[in-house]
Structures are given as structure tokens and as C-alpha cells.
Amino acid sequence: MENLIAYFETIPSSHRSLILVGGITFFWVLEYIIPLFRFDYRKFRHAWPNLFFTLTTIIVNFILAFLLFMTSNWTLQHKFGVLQWFELPLWVQVCIALLILDLVGAWFAHWIQHKIKPFWRLHLIHHTDTCVDTTTANRHHPGESVIRFACTTLAVFLGGVPVAYVLLYQSVSVVLSQFNHANIKLPDVLDSMISWVIVSPDMHKVHHHYKLPYTDTNYGNIFSFWDRIFGTFSVLEPKKIIYGVDTCPEVDSQTRIGRLLTLPFKGNKHLEKTIEKKDAQG
Question: How far is residue 8's CA from residue 227's CA, in Å, rounded to a whole number?
């Protein structure tokens, strides 16, 4: 464990890039072998906007990284946060850090994007992908990337989390997000077993179903038990899943990047209908 943490304390940017690219490549190939759905689409053309948004996410995180480092250093210097209040074995510290980062920095960040109207306008871009695959994992509007970064920083503050733990979490998160978005079909028993601990492909695909209430369930990123704890877990047979947003039919996987970037800020009857429907659902 000590060696693992020491590695992530000084992990080179090239290694983090290799984890990102390696994960996409692995699941991209796997999608050809065991696809959940056989989409009638050009795989490379579909990937382009999603890869563009992956790049914008990287840029946002790079620009704001100093805030996260400053927050982490402050908690260590002032002995603030859960991990700083107790003397714990290293492996326990790491486990608690991963849980806090996943709950506050991922699950909570995802939940508020479905519940707060301006945030939903940004997050909607992620849900308009009508051919969900491993590249969809990072299909986030730059504005959404800022929200997610803010929640991660909040998690670091509350947890008193060292930067090495954050980098470890982010590396695991990247790969598992690519995994649960991947257009792959696992044996039902295996997928069900996995979903008790981590978010499985079938579990997360329910979240991408085009109609409420399924859209507002299964918010998990790494750990699946948050949704069971907070009552937001749901199940739907994969064959019944249709991707997209039913009240925003004019935006899909083929929508141009420029329009996706400006969509949250423009008056749009379908977008307003989406928000009204979510309000009606409570």
C-alpha cells in the first residue's frame, strides 16, 4: 500500500494519460466482441464529440488543479477533515478517502445536476448521447466539469484528503466510468453480482434510459451502494432501454459540438419541456 501511495504522489502526467487512453482502447475493442446493442452508427464519427468533451474536461481540471492542491495542503497543515481527526492505518485511510470522494465528489455531484435546473441544462449534454458507449463516459459540458471539480474539492476539504489519494481515486474512476458506460454485455449473473459493490454496465445503462423516473436513478460512479442507501436504485431490462432524452428529441449523438456547447444557454422549447417534466416528477 505504501508503494502504491508513493507512486500516486508523483504520478507523471504521461501515466495518467496512458490510463485514460488505455481504458478507452480496451473497452472500445471489447465493444466489438461482446456488444450490448448493435448500433447502426459510424463508431469513429460518434466518438469525435465525446473525445472533444474529454479534452475540455482535462483542460478544466488542469486549469483548476491548483485549487484542489491548495485545499488538500490546507487540511493537512491545519489537521482538518475526517482523515486528519483520527489515527488510522494507511489502508483504512485510503478506503475512507475513496468513499468520501465517491460520495461527495461523484454521487452528490451527479445528484445535484439532476435536481438543480441550471446544472441540469449542462448535464443534459451527457444524456443526449443516443448511442452510449465507452466514449460517453466523459461527454461532459465544460460547465459541468467545473461543477464536478467543485464537488471533488469539497470532498477533499471535508475529508482532509491528501492529493495522492485523490489521484488514485481519479485513476480508478476514469477506468470504471469507461467500464460502466461501455456498450458491452456481461453475463446477467456476473453483472448482478458486480452491481452490489461497483456500478456495472447494466446498472448504469438504466440511468441513460430516455424517460423518467429512470433518468433520475443510479447516480453511482464507482460504488453502487450509495444508490441503494439513498433509495435511488432501479432496475430495467437492457432490451427495454432506449438512450437519449424523450423531451429533447432534436439533440442526439449526431448533434454538432458547437450546438452542444451553446444548448444550455439558449431558449429551447424542448429543453424547457424537459425541465418542466422533471419538476412535475418532484
Answer: 29
